[in-house]
Amino acid sequence: MKKLLGIAMLAALAAPAAAQETLKMHHFVPPKAPPSARFMMPWAENVTKAAGGKIKIDLYPTMQLGGTPPQLVDQVRDGVVDLTFTLPGYTADRFPRTEVFEVPFLHTHAAATAQALQDYYDKYLTEEYSAYKVILLYTHDGAVISANKPINSLADFKGMKIRTANRGGGAFLRGVGATPVGSPVTEIQTMLTKGVIDGVLLPYEIMPAFKIHELVHNHITLSGPQPRIGTSVFAVLMNKKRYDALSPSLKKAIDDNSGRHIAKWAGETWEEVEKPGMAMAQKAGNKFITIPQGEVAKIVAAVRPEIDKFLAQLSRPGFDAAKAYADAQQMVAKYSK
């Protein structure tokens, strides 16, 4: 009997351990920046824990595996990498239904908008992302206008060149008489230093990573219930074939850390990580300006024609972007209460 037990123990020791799935996650932000340190790293740890250690996610920040930020959606779709964190807006018109959430005067705050985006995904976006396993679509806490001069009125925007991450920001800037300059966040420092742009649309959270608070000294928001002019949609995407090849238990570990399960957490995280960026801008002695309500009304009226044009541009056969925008406003309002 003892001999049989000994043989069994030896056989168990000799048996190979359960294989660990290692997934490569490629993204564009620095490793210490909030999107990586406060969201992607904890998310990867949560997946590993849920999978009982059978999934390991290796993060490759700052485009370490090559390419440019707009190419990330192709890298993950084609299986060059297993996962990515990116902005659909970096590939203009590739995800037009998603861009509705980046249209001005829809966003309120990150937790509300992130949860509303899950409702919007179910109604409008499943076809748009059919080539991917969608882990999460969500938004940051909204774009602040950070500029090299104070902006107190609609007239103050005229002639300025301001960077935007997406076409929704471009609609706002054209409406107020500024020139939109599209670029990934990784190019902002150089453009500000060389005077290519006069300001940026960015949330506070990312400013320290790129020293924006040292390069421009005025941070402008709007009075009223929507202080930020809009937001950007982030996407955490997985290669569909790689996901489909996982065992049911490992799929469940990922599913339990996807979509509605983590949307509110992601949004609340983005609200929290705004605070250090704001504190650094305050420490730098920068000015914080709130455009008064009377001027905000003029801004909304000036931007509205550009919103209508952009929504018409986003519309497709079978997709009415103006209707989707109205639906999205109701979805955001539901979670903003």
Radius of gyration (Å): 22 Å
Largest sheet: 6 strands, mixed
Look at the helices and sheets and give the structural class.
alpha/beta
Unreliable residue stretches: 1-17
Domain count: the total is 2
Binned strand content: 15-25%
Q: Which CATH architecture of the largest domain is right?
A: 3-Layer(aba) Sandwich
Distance N to C terminus: 69 Å
Instruction: Record the strand order, biggest sheet.
Output: 7-6-8-5-9-11
The CATH first-level class of the largest domain comes to Alpha Beta
- Average predicted local confidence, pLDDT: 93
Q: Tally the helices.
A: 13
Q: Report the helical percentage.
A: 40-55%
SSE succession: HEHEHEHHEEEHEHEHEEHHHEHH
List its traits.
337 residues; disordered N terminus; globular; D-Maltodextrin-Binding Protein, domain 2; 17% strand; 13 helices; 44% helix; alpha/beta
